Amino acid sequence: MNNTQSEYLVGLIFGLSVPFIWGAWIVISRFGVITSLNAYDITALRVGVASLIVLPIVLTRGLSGLSVKRSIIFSIGVGAPFALTSFLGMSLAPVAHAGVLTNGSIPIFTAILALIFLKQRFSKKRFFAVLIIIFGGLCIGGDSMLSSASYTLFLGDLLLISSGALFALYLTALDKWKPEVIQTIVAVPVISAVVYLPIWILFLPSKLMDFSDFPPWSDIALQAGFQGVIASFIVVMLLTRATRSIGATTVAILLSGAPALAVLLGVLMLDENPSTLSWAGVSIATVGMILAVKNEPKKIL
After folding, report:
1. Which segment of 12-21, 184-193, 212-221, 267-276 scores lowest on mean pLDDT?
2. 3-state SS, residue 299
């Protein structure tokens, strides 16, 4: 195995691990916003805990060589704006919608942004694979999608699609600029915390600051640990490393497997029993992922 093949294999392993964490993130985030916390609080915990962890690095190395402009773009893509739109969407729509609409829209928006900024286009086989993944995702959320939708559910769906677009921006920026891992894990929480936390404290509704009905410490610890450590650091490191090796479009397609995993985790954590249609979607999405990874995007000369 030569260096190129080895690099690709390492990137693929890192990329394949992300959907498992992402599937758990969907379920844990949904649990948080429908129980003792709200979307604004979980976003604050995410960026607040993460920024405290990297504070020593910031004090000694600043943004580790990453420009403020690029730091802001990365933060928009996977920092507070992404987190807030995701959590607000999950507070209005169920796990199936979160998995299907966020993860299903990421490959679409990534393909559009990659075409514009990276001059990449899908081959016909890869495009067909994306369609299979999207169809599998629709099957997973088919029952709820076919139900009569209220205004709040529709708004939740729009927010989830918006979060997919923001994350596609992040993936495309990773692919274009190929920053070091240390740069992304520092820039994202720091920029988010500086901008978001003052707004949260001064203007946004918060259960964390309602001392008459303070949330259980176990719920706070779960969200702080998962959002502030796993989602903000482990996932960012895995994504940064994977994108440098296999590209943004491949990573985006791998993430489309997260809805299937979210359904499986939902059975265990939220007692959501999927229908036959949902189980079919798990199989279809997995087939699409395998086909998609085998077909690399082509560069437009």
Report:
1. 267-276
2. strand
- The percent helix, strand, coil of the chain (3-state, each to 5) is 80, 0, 15
Distance CA 113, CA 96 (A): 26
The full DSSP string for 188-227 is: HHHHHHHHHHHHHHHHS--STT-GGGPPPHHHHHHHHHII
**Rounded to 5°, angle at Cα 74 from 261 and 39:** 55
| Residue 237, amino acid | M
Contact 69, 77 (CB under 8 A): no
φ/ψ (deg, to 5) at 121: -135, 155
Kindly state the average pLDDT of the residues 191-220.
94
Task: Give the residues across from 298 on adjacent strands.
Answer: 121
* Axis crossing angle, helix 151-177 with helix 248-255, rounded to the nearest 10: 150
Q: Would you call 39 helix, strand, or coil by DSSP?
A: helix
Per-residue model confidence as pLDDT tens digits over 117-136 = 887 776 777 778 778 877 87
Are 107 and 297 in contact by the 8 Å Cβ rule? The answer is: no
Report the DSSP pairing between strands 298-299 and 120-121: antiparallel
pLDDT, one tens digit per residue, over 18-72 is 888 888 999 999 999 999 999 999 999 999 999 999 999 999 998 888 999 999 9
Distances (CA, A) of 191 to 50, 108, 132, 173: 11, 27, 37, 16
Handedness of CA 145, 149, 155, 156 (dihedral sign): negative
Give the closest residue to 256 by CA, choosing from 85, 109, 67, 40: 109
Residue 121 DSSP label: E
pTM of the model: 0.85
What SS3 state is found at 36? coil
Alpha-carbon torsion, ordered 244, 245, 249, 253, to 10 deg? -120
Report how far Cα 200 is from the mean position of its chain's Cα atoms.
22
